[in-house]
Every structure is written in C-alpha cells, then in structure tokens.
Amino acid sequence: MLPGWLFKLVVLGAPVENSTFLHVLSCNNIVSSLFKCHFPAVIAEGMAPPQRILFPPEKIYMDWQQRWRAGAGLHNSGNMCFLNSVLQCLTYTPPLANYLLSREHSQSCRQRGFCMMCRMEKHVNSVLHSSGGAIYPSAVISVLTLIGEHFQLGMQEDAHEFLRYTVDAMQRSCLSGISE
Asked: Which stretches in the chain have pLDDT values below 50?
C-alpha cells in the first residue's frame, strides 16, 4: 500500500508502466496530464518526492465550474487551421479552461517575457467571454515563433506538432522560477 501523501502529488516526469500520463487518447488527456495524474503515483527508488505541488488535486475540476455558451469562433486567415483546431481543443478542455478562467496563473506569474500560460489565459478568456462571431487569436499568433521557432504565420503546419510545442511551452511556464 502506498502512503496517503503519495496520492496528493502532482507528478511531472516520465510515465510509469500502465499509466495514461502521456498517452494521448484525446485533447483532454494531454492537457489533463499537466494538471493531474491519472495513475497510481509511484516514486522510483532513490527519487525524492516533489518539493512543490503545482496543481493541488482539490483545485482541479474535471467538469465546467460555470455554464458557458459556445464562445467566439476563430478567424482562419491563411493556413491557420492547425493553430485554430488546437486552440479550440484546449479552450474547451474543462480542467484547463477552469484554471485559465480563474486568472490564477497571471496573478502569480513570475516569468519575465514570454509566458505561454499567460497567453492561453488571455486567449481562453477572450473566446469564452465573447458570444457569437469570430475573433482573431492574436494572443497566440503574436508569439507563434516563441512557441516553436520553425512555425511561420501563413504557412501550413502540423496540428499535432503545434499541440506538442504548445503544451511543452505551457509546462515550461508553470515550472518557471522553480529551483531544480
């Protein structure tokens, strides 16, 4: 039997056997992997438990905390389908959206310069607080090359690759300022 405190950890690391930590079955799973483990937490022999819990389980809500109408759509101005589809997926993933709508990240963000979580927070709030119509996803488009230096505005790109780079950038933002 594992100690009770182990189940309260948010583990950011390599997946263990039989875990769904990084198995991408849907957009919800990859985003949820940033916020909560979906497997029994196991700390390998010789590995110290995390010094800081980024997202306490009691603050993670898998269902919407507020009812929302469908927010604004996204303008597709020249080969931006890859970006728009990923942003729509992330915007409508309840655990992530709940956190970003709370604006908790930006209120405590200590990252200087580019912060993907702050950008996503701005984007999600813009979309879900707009009713009908379509908006230009400028919060993300304006930092496209900071997400991945090879991404270019107006060029056809791979949605899966953009998702991976975006989630990586979000994770780096969450870990920024934490001593290693």
From this structure: 1-40
